[in-house]
Amino acid sequence: MEESQLFAEASMKNRFIPYADEISVGSLRKGFKIVLRKPYDAALQEYLQTPASYSRLIEKEGVSLKMEARTEIRLWNLGDRELFFKHYLYPGISRMKTLLSRMPKAQREYLALGFMEFLGIPCVEAVGWGAEWTRMGGVRRCFILTVKEKNTLDFRAWLKEMETASGFRNRAMVILQKLAGFFRSMHARGFFLLRPNTRNVLIHPPDAPDPGVLFLDQPYARFLSGPGARWGQLQDLSTLLGGALRHLDEGIIDDFLDVYLPDPLRGSPEALRHRLMLALKARESENRVEKLTLRFRSLLPVFLDKSRKKR
Asked: Order of strands, edge to edge, in the sheet holding 212-215?
C-alpha cells in the first residue's frame, strides 16, 4: 500500500502512522527508542549501533539556543544541513503524568509534521525522534530533530518588525489568508494544532511581498471529533488571530474567515464567528472571572447543539 494511501486511511481513523522512509533502534521494552528518516541515518549512524545510543546522541555537541528546566534546544551542524535538536525532560510529577499518555511529546510532533506534509501543509522537515522510558513506562526524556530553514523569521517577530512599514496590513493579510486555507484543510480532516501561536509560523523570505509560510513546533497536535473538534477549532483560530490582533485591527477576522469558511466542521458561519469573538475576548481579558465566563460562553453552544452531525 502506498504511503499516501496509508496516511489517508489513518486520517479517517483519527490516528497517526509512521513514515515509510525511516529506520529505528530500541523499543519501550528496552527502555529507549531512536527513529531517523533517511538519508539522515548515514550522518547519525554511529548513534544507532550500541545500547548507549540514546545517551550518546543527546550528548552530541552543538550550539545551545535555549536551556530551561524542562526544555533544551541545540543547533547541530551536519555539513550540508543544520538540525534543531529539541530535548524535553520529564522530572517528578510530569513524568508520572506520561504514564497516561500513549506517546512522547516528541513523537507526537514528529508524526504531526508528517501528516501536515501529507496534506500539503508547508512545515519544517522532521528528521527523527527519540525517547527514554522508566521501568514503569513513564517518559524520562525525549527529543525531536528538525531541519533548520534558512532566511526565515517567525510570524510574531515579522509582525513587530513590519508594523510601521508601508502596506503592512495588506502584506499581513496575504499571510493570514494563506494560513486560513491551511487551517481549513487540517480541520476538515479532524486535525488540530491546539497551540499554533505566531511564534510557531515561519515567514520566508521575510522581505518578500508574497512570502511563504512554514509551521513548526507543534507537539500538541492531534485528531479530535465531536465537541472536542469544536474546542480544537476555537483553540487554533483564537490562538493564531489573538497574536495577530496585537498588531492589526479587528477587520482581519472577517478577512481571515472569508477564506476559512464555510465551516469545515459543518456549523453555521454566524455561530462560528460569534464563538470566535468570545474566545478572542477571553484571551484579551485580564480579569480571571471574566476570562472564564467568556470561555464558557464560547464553548457552551458546542455541547448544547444536539443537531450537529457526527464526523
From this structure: 153-154, 201-204, 212-215
State the cell numbers at 180.
Answer: 486560513
Tell me which architecture the domain covering 153-304 has in CATH: Orthogonal Bundle (1.10)
Domain boundaries, the chain: 3-147, 153-304
Q: How many helices (H) and strands (E) does the chain have?
A: 11, 12
* Torsion, Cα of 243, 244, 248, 249 (10° steps): -80
Q: How many residues are recorded in the chain?
A: 311
Q: Cα separation of 53 and 34, whole Å?
A: 8
Q: Which residues pair with 123 in a beta bridge?
A: 215
Is residue 83 within 8 Å of 145, Cβ to Cβ? yes
**Digitized pLDDT (tens) for each residue of the chain, 311 residues in all:** 455 555 555 554 446 766 777 888 777 777 888 888 877 767 777 776 665 677 888 888 889 998 887 899 999 988 778 999 999 988 776 766 666 666 788 999 999 999 999 899 999 999 999 998 888 878 888 999 999 999 999 999 999 999 999 999 999 999 999 999 999 999 999 999 999 999 999 999 999 989 999 999 999 999 999 899 999 999 999 999 999 999 999 999 999 999 999 999 998 999 999 999 999 998 888 788 887 888 778 877 666 654 444 44
